[in-house]
Specification:
The radius of gyration is 12 Å and the shape is globular. β2 and β3 form a beta hairpin. It has one domain: Thrombin, subunit H, CATH 2.40.10. The chain is mostly beta strands and 99 residues long.
């Protein structure tokens, strides 16, 4: 459904219908892990948008879900950092990675 690339982290993040955010290593082309929003692996809520922070020194990514929640998480350790009710359907990060 959505793909974003973080060259600095060496990761490609992809979202699939009713699945977790899946990460692939850009160098080895191998599976690098999944971010699960809930303890139940499947089905996950539908992801409407996904984005990496463009500043690789700030290791964060965000996913906006159809139920109105946006999760900010660390794509390397696959742990949630924040959960907010946003009802967002589009996500964007500033080029300097500050927002």
């Amino acid at each position: 459904m959505h793909v974003d690339i973080s060259v600095g982290l060496g990761l490609l993040g992809a979202t699939y219908r009713l699945r977790s955010v899946t990460f692939w290593d850009l160098e080895t082309n191998e599976f690098a892990g999944q971010f699960h929003r809930s303890l139940a692996a499947y089905p996950e809520p539908f992801i409407q948008a996904f984005v990496f922070n463009p500043n690789s020194e700030v290791t964060l990514a965000a996913a906006a879900y159809q139920d109105g929640k946006t999760m900010v998480f660390d794509p390397e350790i696959l742990k949630a950092q924040a959960e907010v009710e946003t009802n967002a359907s589009i996500l964007a990060a500033s080029p300097d990675g500050q927002c």
